[in-house]
Amino acid sequence: MATAALLTARPFAAIANGLSPVTGFSINNNSLVLAHTGNAAAGNQTLQQIAKLKNSNANLLMLHAGSNAPVVNNGRAVYDASMQNGTSFSINADDYKIVYKGNIKTGIITADSKKPSAEKINALAIYLKKEKDCHLVVCLSQLGYKSKTGLDDLSLAAASTHLDVIIGGHVTNFFKSPMTTLNKNKEEVIINHAGTNGLAFRKIEIGFDNRGRKNQLAFTRSCLQA
After folding, report:
1. Whether 20 contacts 3, CB under 8 Å
2. Is pLDDT of 1 > 80?
3. Which domains are present in the chain?
4. Cβ neighbours of residue 98 under 8 Å, at least 6 residues apart?
5. What is the bridge-based pairing of β-strands 136-141 and 165-168?
6. Which residues pair with 136 in a beta bridge?
7. C-beta separation of 106 from 138 below 8 A
8. 86 φ, ψ to 5°?
9. CA quadruple 16, 184, 199, 38: dihedral positive or negative?
10. Cα separation of 203 and 219, whole Å?
């Protein structure tokens, strides 16, 4: 598994100066690593690498935002959440998934072209933050990075108030570099895409203070060989 150099983006207001090299900062119960794939083929080698990564990091949240991926490998879940076992936006139907890693409670929802309402997505994000007490809300998206005709990742982030991270899995409409942008309340939203081939695997490392507020952010980019 080849790993690229540490990438930088506009940081959180309280970002620490002690982030480690490419391997990431030391994992503790107040930090989380989001590793995610897009539409790259998932062969046996890829599955083995994902399993190894999960086994070596108790606070790793493995996500898939692409249209197809193996959900189970040898009886074990490959991903903590994916578009296949993701959810839509009816709060009454409990259409979300909550995952615990260390002290961090993450709510996960999905967005595709069949469910383009930013209002519904944001309503569920608010519900996860305020009613379910999630520290982080992540949206797995196939809307595409930027569109002239409908909702995209950029406009979703701008219209939101409680989304923290948008993970893009669109095959062709993706941005090559991770970024942060501002939501409706002028708070930061992370947007990151894992497209195909060399963009097959991305990591976002987020640190939290003792009150559950984000205060560290780092990106790495890797390539999983199928």
Report:
1. no
2. no
3. 2-223 (3.60.21.10)
4. 105, 106, 107, 108, 128, 132, 134
5. parallel
6. 106
7. yes
8. -80, -170
9. positive
10. 6
Please determine, for residue 27, whether its predicted confidence score (pLDDT) is greater than 60.
Answer: no
Q: For residue 144, how many other CB atoms are within 10 A of its CB?
A: 22
CA-nearest of 25, 11, 1, 35 to 202 is 35
| Alpha-carbon gap, residue 217 to 205, rounded angstroms | 6
pLDDT tens digits, 152-189: 999 999 999 999 999 887 666 667 678 889 999 999 99
- Ranked by mean pLDDT, which of 51-60, 82-91, 137-146 comes out on top? 137-146
Give yes or no for a contact between 71 and 85, defined as CB atoms under 8 angstroms apart: yes
Residue showing tokens 């709060």: 91
Q: Is the pTM of this model over 0.85?
A: no
Q: Which residues pair with 97 in a beta bridge?
A: 108
